[in-house]
Write a structure and sequence with these properties.
- It holds the Pfam family MFP2b.
- With about 190 residues, the chain is mainly beta.
- The protein has one domain (about 5-180).
- The protein has helices spanning about 5-10, 100, 110-115, and strands at about 15-20, 40, 45, 50-55, 60-70, 70-80, 80-85, 90-95, 105-110, 120-125, 130-135, 140-150, 155-160, 160-165, 175-180.
């Protein structure tokens, strides 16, 4: 195969993460990946939350960022602890790609649908089996956190308390996926 013909079939299909620090000026929200593409129902009203990634001791932790007085606030859960404020330091925020230039679009799908063997239209966005996940409490509150697809559990925080769900409790929780697009501009 010639180099030119292989280039025509190549499309960019990687996730792009922008580097920030907690407390930095909040970036343009139109360029970020929002949770469920709408404000989430939280215990204190509706709130826009965006997909974020943080590393603790070299392990990826998915969580959320939001704008507070024009600055980045963040929350990540690892084990039974919440990390927020200055304890977070550096983090990455997922950037929304242009669909016609990257080969995919982001969408939120229930874990139960994505995990079926016959559904390969939506592939989870993940790093070491950890994917962004919307957890919903029995009270109906929603929060953006992370799910470990290998160990089958999801974590987030509500009002400073870590919440954890596992096994079949995860089936209706939405995770961030990439859906391949046929109408992509080829490079």
């Amino acid at each position: 195969m010639s180099g030119e013909s292989s280039l025509r079939k190549l499309s960019i299909n990687i996730s792009e993460w922008a580097d920030y620090k907690a407390g930095d000026e909040f970036p343009d929200p139109k360029k970020l990946v929002p949770a469920l593409d709408r404000p989430l129902r939280t215990s204190f009203g509706s709130q826009e939350q965006y997909v974020a990634l943080w590393y603790r001791h070299g392990h990826p932790v998915m969580g959320r960022v939001w704008s507070y007085n024009g600055r980045i606030e963040a929350s990540f859960s690892d084990g039974d602890k919440e990390f927020t404020g200055k304890s977070v330091g550096s983090l990455q925020i997922l950037v929304k790609p242009l669909k016609d230039q990257c080969g995919f679009a982001y969408c939120w799908r229930p874990i139960g649908d994505v995990s079926r063997f016959d559904n390969k239209d939506h592939l989870p966005v993940h790093i070491n089996f950890v994917t962004p996940c919307i957890l919903t409490t029995p009270e109906g509150y929603e929060t953006l956190g992370g799910a470990n697809l290998k160990e089958e559990y999801a974590l987030s925080t509500i009002n400073g308390h870590v919440i954890r769900y596992s096994g079949k409790q995860l089936q209706n929780f939405n995770i961030l996926c990439r859906k391949l697009c046929d109408d992509t501009m080829q490079i």
